[in-house]
Design goal:
Elements (H helix, E strand, L loop, with lengths): L1 H10 L2 H6 L1 H20 L9 H10 L4 H8 L3 H4 L8 H16 L1 H7 L3 H31 L2 E2 L2 E2 L6 H28 L4 H12 L1 H14 L4 H23 L1 E7 L2 E4 L2 E4 L2 E7 L6 H18 L7 H9 L5 H22 L2 H10 L11 H36 L7 H40 L1
Antiparallel strand pairs: 1-2, 3-6, 4-5
């Protein structure tokens, strides 16, 4: 506890922060980019009646469209240029990572280093445009079929409306993709995660106000509201504990003699996080579930019978939805962990520098041992992700709790906050080290 408090105090050392000019520039750039994103969520698509759209959306509340609206920061409900948000990019990234695992050409491209990574990123961008075009056309077609008591949602349907809607939606997604990359390079934190994070946080006050209003009208009891708030605090504490949990494997380095002196013989540790995949599995699972159901939600009940059946089976709290959601979270937890951590490469690097795990022979035995430990950790990590994301889903379906109090939203908010604070801390440490090096050089010159 003392070390954690010291780390937190050093992170928010305002004296050191005021001198970290580069860090301040990065933070201001990040805040400016997020403000631009939030402003874009209020620029409506042309040719849509907002009153009719609001009536239709209110009639469909409680479904997966609410989750999509949460990820988009309310842009879907307002049907703005950012209605698709960053989800097509996430879906394209999933497809590219799956193809990299099964395609030898893409696997070889990945091993080429920076050049290969740039090519894969370029392919991901192409896939983003393609998916955004398909989803944008589906939304445009669905909007034309939407009507309410006040009239149709689209005043002048036809080719021109569909073309302008697709262009605006694709342009908005591409802009957010570019903005997220700029935040990652020139700001603080992961840009894509921060965009989703800001959309969730921006709507938290209205979600809290809506919950309190339900309590005032008697739809939800006061005791349940208190229980909900306590549960949110417990879930946040549990997420922080699990995200910080790690297994430290001792790595021993042998002694080496150079001349008359002995070097080495020290021991270090190899940290393996309990949840190596982080917040990626729930986001990936949600984006895949939302892709087909976006079309179903905007079909206005005029689609084929099987589409209505699928939508009903994948409704909030339904067994099939929960089963698919859990399966996808577990799958992506193992899949993404296998991508970001390669036991064979780690074992080769340890062998290259003379390191070994006590009791384990270097080489293949070390690789097998790392794979065994990592698999056990990932089982626990995947179970933790599934538990955090599913339990609030059940409560939400039974008691109409807003999505913003769900496990997925809390997991994203807490994880992104922790990652961003860690990056700020690392930037401040780098600034302090640079200051110490400059001072030592000045002292050396004076002597």
């Amino acid at each position: 506890m003392a070390s954690a408090a010291e780390q937190l105090a050093s992170t928010f050392n305002f004296g050191a922060f005021s001198k970290a000019t580069e860090l301040k520039k990065r933070i201001w750039f990040t805040l400016g980019a997020l403000i631009v994103y939030r402003l874009g969520t209020y620029i409506p698509l042309p040719g849509i009646d907002p009153t009719v759209l609001s009536d239709i959306f209110n009639a469909q509340r409680g479904g997966l469209l609410d989750m999509f609206n949460m990820f988009s920061g309310g842009a879907l409900e307002r049907m703005t240029i950012f209605a698709l948000n960053i989800m097509p990019y996430i879906s394209a990234a999933i497809i590219m990572q799956l193809m990299t695992a099964v395609s030898p050409k893409l696997e070889a491209l990945k091993k080429e280093g920076e050049a290969g990574r740039k090519k894969i990123n370029q392919y991901t961008r192409y896939g983003t445009v393609l998916l955004a075009t398909v989803q944008g056309y589906a939304i445009a077609s669905g909007l034309e079929s939407l009507t309410s008591s006040a009239g149709p949602a689209v005043s002048n349907p036809g080719f021109f409306f569909r073309a302008t809607t697709v262009i605006c939606l694709v342009g908005g997604t591409v802009f957010l993709m570019w903005l997220g990359e700029q935040i990652t390079q020139r700001g603080v934190g992961n840009g894509i995660s921060l965009i989703i994070f800001s959309g969730i946080v921006a709507n938290l006050p209205s979600a809290i106000a809506g919950t309190l209003e339900l309590g005032r009208t008697g739809a939800i009891s006061t005791i349940f509201i208190i229980f909900l708030l306590l549960m949110s605090v417990v879930v946040i504490a549990f997420i922080v504990f699990m995200e910080r949990a790690q297994r430290r494997l001792i790595v021993q380095y042998p002694k080496r003699q150079m001349g008359n002196k002995m070097f080495g013989g020290e021991s270090s540790h190899l940290p393996l996080k309990l949840n190596t995949a982080g917040v990626i599995p729930p986001i990936f699972a949600s984006s895949i579930l939302l892709m087909p159901l976006t079309i179903a939600g905007f079909s206005g009940g005029q689609g084929p019978d099987w589409l209505g059946t699928v939508t009903a089976l994948l409704g909030p709290g339904q067994p099939l939805y929960l089963l698919i959601y859990i399966s996808m979270i577990v799958f992506f937890a193992f899949f993404y962990t296998a991508i970001v951590f390669n036991p064979a490469d780690t074992a080769d690097n340890l062998k290259k520098y003379g390191g070994f795990i006590p009791g384990i022979r270097p080489g293949k035995n070390t690789s097998d041992y790392l794979d065994y430990v990592l698999t056990r950790l990932t089982v626990v990590g995947a179970g933790y992700l599934a538990l955090v994301c599913i339990l609030p889903e059940i409560l939400r379906s039974q008691y109409a709790v807003p999505f913003y109090f769900g496990g997925t939203s809390l997991l994203i908010v807490v994880s992104v906050t922790m990652d961003t604070v860690a990056q700020i801390h690392s930037h401040m440490l780098a600034h302090q080290y640079e200051g110490l090096i400059k001072k030592s050089k000045l002292r050396g010159r004076r002597r």
